[in-house]
Amino acid sequence: MRRQGRSVDNESMSSLTLLSALDAVLRRLPKPLLLALGLGSVAALAVVDAAGHHSLPFETFYVAPVLAVAWLTGSTRYGFVVALAAALVRPAEALVLAPPPAAPSPNPALFAFGALVQLLLYLVLLWLLATVRADLARRQAEAQRDALTGIANGRAFGLIAEAEIERSRRYRHALSLLYLDIDDFKGVNDRCGHAEGDRLLQRLVALLGENLRAVDAAARLGGDEFAVLMPETGSRAAGQQAMRLMAALSAETTSAGAPLSCSCGLATFRLAPTSVAALLAAGDQLMYEAKAAGKNRLCRAVLPAVRTAPAGDGRGSSAPQGDAQVLQRVE
Fold first, then answer.
1. Catalytically annotated residue among 23, 224, 313, 323
2. Which of 69, 232, 244, 278 would you call most buried, defined as having the most Cβ atoms within 10 angstroms of its Cβ?
3. pTM of the model
4. Which whole-number Å values give the CA distances from 109 to 94, 116, 117, 312, in the listed order?
């Protein structure tokens, strides 16, 4: 029985995966094309309905293209166009098709009333669908935001970083990552309370927003650790950005009057790594080296290291050229 239950669960997961993949593919199509497909589905259903060789309530089948178009396009207006077409099918059939012999003539007012009721039903369904879509969008946004500070969380940062890594590798653009860790944050919580620690985290996020560029992506990775991704940014520009940010942070003080200092690691990649984990690991290592050197410092490096051969020696040197780490203290 347990094995049978697992088989059912696996089949359900496979179906969900297939539906998710199909949904993702269809969402990439242009909205006008999705609208055309929806109207084409309504037309096909109308042809089958007009054939008359069935006893099915075909009005219910028209709901599918109406809701599908509204969902895939993310637009109630597109869904309304399909809903209007579906509601007008019966009146159109009454006008175009001749009634069977000995059958009473169709009542136009009755058909118009039926179309209006059907359209109102579709509008209610479209409103419910829009409500569900808005709720899902809100939940997804909340799932990618840090609850305390409102900044992107680690999950959201991973999605952004994956896209930037792919773009950086494709176009051979530099990519920089700034990894920040608040110095002695545990001591602040112990001495001043968690409310003061929360205030410092929120203030740090506010300073990030004031000092970063629109193209930069900042996130709270957890606790007192933050990351800033700088697309298409070389070592010099990233260094200037990092020092400016650290100076702004140092000007902020705790309730006890101590400066809000951070140990930072800045990794600039000539060629972006193949994974987000490798990206973060490089910045994390540099941050810990800055912390070990006395805190409130920036430790930076350009990666990967360039290996060159010294004069008179055909073998490559293991010493990186132009990649030496630089420790800078922010007063």
1. 224
2. 69
3. 0.65
4. 12, 10, 12, 99
